[in-house]
Structure formats: C-alpha cells, structure tokens
C-alpha cells in the first residue's frame, strides 16, 4: 500500500479531522467565549478541504480516480463532486448559525466542532468502497447529528427531536448492519468489487434479502417513504440552523451513498432493486405532497417538501443508467441551494423580541412589510415546485428526460402528474404573503451574513442560474461516469 498516495487522496478528511481535534482543544481551554472564533476557524478548515477537493478533481493524473487504504476508500470524480456540495452546505449553515443561538445565549464552540466531524463522516461515506468503511462514516456523521438535533437545551422540542432521531436512527443503523451481514454472508466479501463479482451471475434469495435491508436502512437516511416518519418531527423540533444542515449536507451524503451502493456493488443486478426504488420514488412524491398540504408550521412543510424532492431524485436512480445518475447529481446540486435558501429565509423570520417565527400566520401580508424577503421566499418556493423559468424546473426536467430515454415513460408520466399536487402548497405561500392582511410581526433582519447566503441561493435558482447548466451538466456527467467506470 502506498501510504503517501493514500494520505494525498484522503487529504480533505485528514485536514478536517486535524482541524476538528485542534478546535476541540481550543473549545476546552478557552470556553464558550471562543465560540465565534472556533466557528470562523471551522469555516476556514472547510474552505481548505474544498480547495483540496477541487485540486484532486482537476488533477489530470487522477482523472480516473484511485483507491486508498488497501481498497477501503476511493477518490474519484463522484466523491469529489458530492464532497464539494457537502462542504459548501456546511459552510453556508455555519455562516448563518451564530446569530440564532446568540439571541438565546446558547452558542457554544462544540457546535462548529460537531459540524466538522459530521462533515468528516460524510466525506468518508461518499468515498467508501467497502461496507465497513461505509458504516464507520455513516455512524460518525449520525452521532454528530443526534447531538445537533438536541443542541438547544432550553427547548423541549429540541430534546424530543434529538431523542426521536437517535432511537429511529439506531433502528435504521441496525437494519442496515443486518443487511450488510447478509450481503457479506452470501457473497463472502465486504468490498464493493468483491460483492459485484459475486453477484455477476445472479442473486440468490439470501443476498436479495440483504440488498433489501441495506436499501431500507439507507432509505431512512434520505427520508424516503415508507421510512420518512421521523422527518417532520425532527425538522420542526431541531433548532432551525440544524434543520437547515439536515436538509442539505447529510441529505447529499445519504443520496450519494445510496447511488454508489446501488450502482456499484448491486449494479449488475439492477432489476432486483429497481421496483423497490420506483415504489419509494412515487410514494415519496405523493406522500410528501399530500402531507404538506395541511401544514401550518413552515418547518414541517419544508420537511414534507424534502420528502417530495427525494422522490424526484429517486426517479433518476430507478433509471439505473449513467444519464439517470448524472440527472440525480444535477438535481441534488440545485436542491442544496433551494433548501439552504429556504431555511435561511425562515431564520430571518423573527419578531421584535427576537423569537423565531415559523407559521403561515406570521408571514401573512409579508410582501407589504418585508418585500425583499417575501420575493426571495416566493422564488425559492416556486423553484422547489419546479415552475419555469426558475432553476428548480431544470432539475426536474433532466430527471424526467433520463426516465423517458430509458423507456420508463409511465414512471415519468406519473412523476409529472404527482408533481402537480405539490404546486398547491407552494402557491399557498403566495396567497398568504401577497393577498392576506399584514400581520406585521416580522422585523427587518440586520444580519449581513444571512442576507449574503440568501441572496446567493436566490440568485443561483433564478433564471440567471441557467447560465450554469452546461457547466453543471458536464461536472455531473463526469461524476456519474466514475461510478460506471467499473462496469
């Protein structure tokens, strides 16, 4: 094993791990007063890791990817693409967080350290090419998430969210681990290449059960129906900056590992799991749309919206082609900006006493009192609905195009028809903000950091975002081809 090459390929995780340990020492010795300093240093570490990822992505000598640590870890275009999304989402969440907890006097330096270690776990997940590496990365990310969900000690809802997330997450991890043990038992390998070779000539009943359990455990992580029950409660109960994090970075990582494990070790037997993914996709679209219709709490509505959008992403996986994988990555990149912008806008809904506002009644007539904020929310919601000319439309377009090209015309038709249901609750924002009597409870935000993140997200999903589509498509094609290189 070439240790020097292994260190080079896993440099982003090494940088973040060292930074996390160093910042943990700073937090221990400097106390709570170091919270903002630790946050800035955490952002700097994530920027450095992102720069290393870009260097690896553009390194011609590593254009085909390479294995590290005796085949347990792989650096390729797919892992680099998804890591960039994870790190950018984490940076965005860290930028907008301090002001939220400062109002309650609860901001502590452990918060950015947990985010750093969560990012390390997610980076390991998307680069894993062995079931053991996958599980280590998954648990590292999950343990950080459980603590973050219950971070607000003064809020009972936060403690409840953390407990629910922990119990259900432990159940999902048990299901996933059991599935891994079955796969190992019937293939004799934990390596993705070894599993693929063992399943090349067919899949027995035992191995099929293992695959189903693995997919069920990962479906929980991406909040796909029927493993979505935790999402509305955790999204509502967790502090809003934490919810923004859950909706972006861990979502990217979970979708990425689902893609890699379905298309790499189980790729030779795609017909065995294709029907499962089709069901999960359509069920997530319908349940997410119908569940959101009656919601008055905006965080719960956005939780159902995330379930709905996961359904569209899974259509690309059901296609099981390189075009479908590329479409998934394009949609995922666009979704990160839409979700991050939506939760940042929600963070800016505060009353004169500094309390967080979360209901439709609070944004009644918002266009009259805070027109710019209302406009940003309008654009973000319409983009999530996939209404042209906003960039969210392009994400859905490439997904359905991939399905049609793979002759899954019925799936594409059902997906398009079901997406119409979702438009109803997004339009509700327009009705409440632009046509209802002003509640005038939202005060003007004086946070340049939040306005900067919200403005960037809104700009990306606006019609100007179409200028990025060719470039984004090329990156997604390259990332998708990395997974099919072994075929």
Automatic annotation (TrEMBL):
<protein>
    <recommendedName>
        <fullName>NADH-quinone oxidoreductase subunit N</fullName>
        <ecNumber>7.1.1.-</ecNumber>
    </recommendedName>
</protein>
<feature type="transmembrane region" description="Helical">
    <location>
        <begin position="207"/>
        <end position="230"/>
    </location>
</feature>
<feature type="transmembrane region" description="Helical">
    <location>
        <begin position="372"/>
        <end position="394"/>
    </location>
</feature>
<dbReference type="GO" id="GO:0048038">
    <property type="term" value="F:quinone binding"/>
</dbReference>
<dbReference type="InterPro" id="IPR010096">
    <property type="entry name" value="NADH-Q_OxRdtase_suN/2"/>
</dbReference>
<dbReference type="GO" id="GO:0042773">
    <property type="term" value="P:ATP synthesis coupled electron transport"/>
</dbReference>
<keyword id="KW-0874">Quinone</keyword>
<keyword id="KW-0520">NAD</keyword>
<feature type="transmembrane region" description="Helical">
    <location>
        <begin position="77"/>
        <end position="101"/>
    </location>
</feature>
<keyword id="KW-1278">Translocase</keyword>
<keyword id="KW-0813">Transport</keyword>
<comment type="function">
    <text>NDH-1 shuttles electrons from NADH, via FMN and iron-sulfur (Fe-S) centers, to quinones in the respiratory chain. The immediate electron acceptor for the enzyme in this species is believed to be ubiquinone. Couples the redox reaction to proton translocation (for every two electrons transferred, four hydrogen ions are translocated across the cytoplasmic membrane), and thus conserves the redox energy in a proton gradient.</text>
</comment>
<feature type="transmembrane region" description="Helical">
    <location>
        <begin position="14"/>
        <end position="31"/>
    </location>
</feature>
<feature type="transmembrane region" description="Helical">
    <location>
        <begin position="301"/>
        <end position="321"/>
    </location>
</feature>
<feature type="transmembrane region" description="Helical">
    <location>
        <begin position="275"/>
        <end position="295"/>
    </location>
</feature>
<feature type="transmembrane region" description="Helical">
    <location>
        <begin position="38"/>
        <end position="57"/>
    </location>
</feature>
<dbReference type="Pfam" id="PF00361">
    <property type="entry name" value="Proton_antipo_M"/>
</dbReference>
<keyword id="KW-0830">Ubiquinone</keyword>
<keyword id="KW-0812">Transmembrane</keyword>
<dbReference type="GO" id="GO:0050136">
    <property type="term" value="F:NADH dehydrogenase (quinone) (non-electrogenic) activity"/>
</dbReference>
<dbReference type="GO" id="GO:0005886">
    <property type="term" value="C:plasma membrane"/>
</dbReference>
<comment type="similarity">
    <text>Belongs to the complex I subunit 2 family.</text>
</comment>
<feature type="transmembrane region" description="Helical">
    <location>
        <begin position="406"/>
        <end position="427"/>
    </location>
</feature>
<dbReference type="GO" id="GO:0008137">
    <property type="term" value="F:NADH dehydrogenase (ubiquinone) activity"/>
</dbReference>
<feature type="transmembrane region" description="Helical">
    <location>
        <begin position="451"/>
        <end position="473"/>
    </location>
</feature>
<feature type="transmembrane region" description="Helical">
    <location>
        <begin position="328"/>
        <end position="349"/>
    </location>
</feature>
<dbReference type="GO" id="GO:0012505">
    <property type="term" value="C:endomembrane system"/>
</dbReference>
<dbReference type="InterPro" id="IPR001750">
    <property type="entry name" value="ND/Mrp_TM"/>
</dbReference>
<keyword id="KW-0472">Membrane</keyword>
<keyword id="KW-1003">Cell membrane</keyword>
<feature type="transmembrane region" description="Helical">
    <location>
        <begin position="113"/>
        <end position="138"/>
    </location>
</feature>
<feature type="domain" description="NADH:quinone oxidoreductase/Mrp antiporter transmembrane">
    <location>
        <begin position="128"/>
        <end position="422"/>
    </location>
</feature>
<comment type="subunit">
    <text>NDH-1 is composed of 14 different subunits. Subunits NuoA, H, J, K, L, M, N constitute the membrane sector of the complex.</text>
</comment>
<keyword id="KW-0560">Oxidoreductase</keyword>
<keyword id="KW-1133">Transmembrane helix</keyword>
<feature type="transmembrane region" description="Helical">
    <location>
        <begin position="165"/>
        <end position="186"/>
    </location>
</feature>
